[in-house]
Amino acid sequence: xxxxxxxxxxxxxxxxxxxxxxxxxxxxxxxxxxxxxxxxxxxxxxxxxxxxxxxxxxxxxxxxxxxxxxxxxxxxxxxxxxxxxxxxxxxxxxxxxxxxxxxxxxxxxxxxxxxxxxxxxxxxxxxxxxxxxxxxxxxxxxxxxxxxxxxxxxxxxxxxxxxxxxxxxxxxxxxxxxxxxxxxxxxxx
Length: 189
Fold this sequence. Notes:
Layout: H1 2-7, E1 12-15, H2 19-28, E2 34-37, E3 51-56, H3 67-80, E4 81-91, H4 94-98, E5 102-104, E6 108-109, E7 114-122, E8 125-134, E9 137-145, H5 150-159, E10 164-168, E11 183-188
Parallel strand pairs: 1-2, 3-4
Antiparallel strand pairs: 4-11, 5-7, 6-7, 7-8, 8-9, 10-11
Helix pairs in contact: 3-5
């Protein structure tokens, strides 16, 4: 996404907390300048500059530990946006996940690998488990997520100072509902 935006003429700053992943971004950037930092979402306040837009897609917001961290992050986002700046966020619709004890995505089966994803509820967290099988070997990983619902997220955005908040069910601006593929939020300062 950062490379695409840079190619479109935007001045892009990307953050990735893991150095290996940040280096992969840097390696892909040859013809277009992208400023890549190894910072977490919680460190957005450390940037001296402000931005016209900030995006947090790919269900990354829910990697924060709790609603208090989400609240703190969104307040920092608001402070780091220029006047009329926009924040774009995409997360899974956790209302669907929380209403089921066993939520698995369709298996992605290709010629040389199989990819499985599932959510399991564990107290106030959702455990996201991925497994990939290739050449008879499997690798699995489980990540703990903060299951933010739209009913929780929208008031936090409003309390952070955003003037307009729009919700969509997909990146084509389809209407948001509990049955949408995702929750897309566009919040303007």
